[in-house]
Amino acid sequence: MWEDLNARFPDLMLLGAHARDHVLHTRARLPIPRATTDLDIAIGVDSPSTYRTRTRELTKLGDTGTSFLIADHRVDIIPFGGLTPGEHGYLELEPGVFTDVTGLQEAYENAEILALDGFEVRTPTLEALVVLKTIAWMMRGPTTDKDATDLVELLKATAEGDYEPRIWTATASGLLDRFLPDEIGAYLTGKEVAAIFGTSAQERCLDAWDGQHTPKLVAAGDEWSQSFEERLKALASGVREHV
């Protein structure tokens, strides 16, 4: 499958559960929360018409307008690049089919390179996934809680595995009078968000992390809600103190 995908979309970036599991399991060494056979990717385009051209030969699945059959696998393909979204970052790919492209360009520009079956594939960093999962939750709202529960796991990851040593540096240890050690990971992730993402992505995420949408996000995340809320606030502080 990767050979087919790389031939069609050499600029692709991994998204969804596979990108999440790379961060949670490979980098943070946490359990994989749930299995899936679906694949999500992003491809660079300069307009909705270019997106339609690049996906025209693929077999569509369902009525989402972004799901296709490639090498016997369901692949969701989201555009990014020189696009001009409408209100709230939504982009109309075709009549009645919307997606949210906020933050995808920044995520691509700062992606990690992952080797898969002999091919190099871009995959979002931890801080980029935190942003993209938040944006996805903001768009999908009450239709599913999976983005919120993924965000719970990603915030756990900010202080685990490869991400743990940073919370014990001399500079980060100075934050112990304000945050618990696992909250420092969230704060440092927020600092990276401020460095990488533009105003639009930051403002929308802050509304979810420490703003009007926070109670709904905490409720949707469900697990250990008080700790989740505190990590969200630390995440927001990391952004606000470094813009």
CATH topology (fold) name of the largest domain = Beta Polymerase, domain 2
How far the N terminus sits from the C terminus, by CA atoms, comes to: 41 Å
Q: SSE order, as H and E?
A: HEHEHEEEEEHEEHHHHHHH
CATH architecture of the largest domain: 2-Layer Sandwich
How many whole angstroms does the radius of gyration measure? Answer: 18 Å
User: For this structure, what is the CATH class of the largest domain?
Assistant: Alpha Beta
Question: Any overview of this molecule?
Answer:
The protein has 243 residues and is of the alpha+beta class. It has 2 domains: 2-125, Beta Polymerase, domain 2; 128-240, no CATH class. It has helices spanning 2-8, 16-27, 48-55, 104-109, 126-140, 146-157, 170-173, 181-196, 199-209, 214-221, 225-240, and strands at 13-15, 39-45, 59-60, 67-70, 73-81, 90-94, 97-100, 112-116, 119-123. Helix 5 (126-140) crosses helix 9, helix 6 (146-157) packs across helix 10 (214-221) and helix 10 crosses helix 11. The radius of gyration is 18 Å and the shape is globular. The termini are far apart. The model has no long low-confidence stretch (mean pLDDT 90).
